[in-house]
Amino acid sequence: MTVMLLMLIAGSLGVAALTMSGLENSMAGSIRMVEEGTSAAESCVGTAVRAIRLTMDDPQMSAEAAVLIAPLGPVPALNQAVFTQEINGTLRNNSDVAVGAGNAPNLTMNVNGYVVNGDIDFLYSKQRAGSDFADSDKPTFDQFYRVDCVAANAATGATSRVIVTFDCLNTTGEGCVKRGSNG
């Protein structure tokens, strides 16, 4: 009877160990999917900043910024007019979204099995303190944009979303700076 009881306890411990290792593998796979999705969404953010800079430098999207237009680039051809209006500030806080009802993404990409949709919204513009207020041809403006990127993997159902605010200088060659929650 003692041997049977010890065998039952040993068997229970063995089953518990197998269950735990299976659970650990499942958790590791879930974490990997979240990391892959977040990386895909982050790549959309980087592409969005490049698209903002190229479109600020080439507002008509006829020279350098033409590479952004589909089929070669991430900007859907049907959304080009709205995209340029959102970058130059004609459309402010546009109600379009990257995914969901009424979606009209500014960027569409495929990254490592994820379909990534991105939305860029011009928030506001303000003249930079210390810029040349006397010369109206050369003022420097900070232009603020919100970039919302969503990565979705249809095979696994995994989705990741990254939303970032950028402060971009309208001066050619300057750049965009990621803004934190404290400004």
Number of domains: 1
Strand order of the largest sheet: 1-2-3-4-5
Cα-atom Rg, whole angstroms? 24 Å
In round numbers, the mean pLDDT is: 83
The total strand number stands at 5
Q: Tell me about the biggest sheet?
A: 5 strands, antiparallel
Helix content: 25-40%
Low-confidence stretches: none
Order of helices and strands: HHEEEEE
Distance between the termini: 71 Å
**Judging from the principal axes of the Cα atoms, what is the shape?**
elongated
Q: SS-based structural class?
A: alpha+beta
Strand content: 25-35%
Query: Helical segment tally?
Result: 2
How would you describe this protein?
It is a single chain. Helix content is 36%, strand content 25%. By secondary structure, the protein is α+β, with helices and mostly antiparallel strands. The protein has one domain. A 5-stranded antiparallel β-sheet has the order 1-2-3-4-5. The mean pLDDT is 83.
Outline:
This protein has helices at residues 2-57, 80-88; strands at residues 107-111, 114-127, 141-152, 159-169, 176-179. With 183 residues, it is an alpha+beta fold.
SSE order and pairing:
Layout: H1 2-57, H2 80-88, E1 107-111, E2 114-127, E3 141-152, E4 159-169, E5 176-179
Keywords:
alpha+beta, 5-stranded antiparallel beta sheet, 183 residues, 36% helix
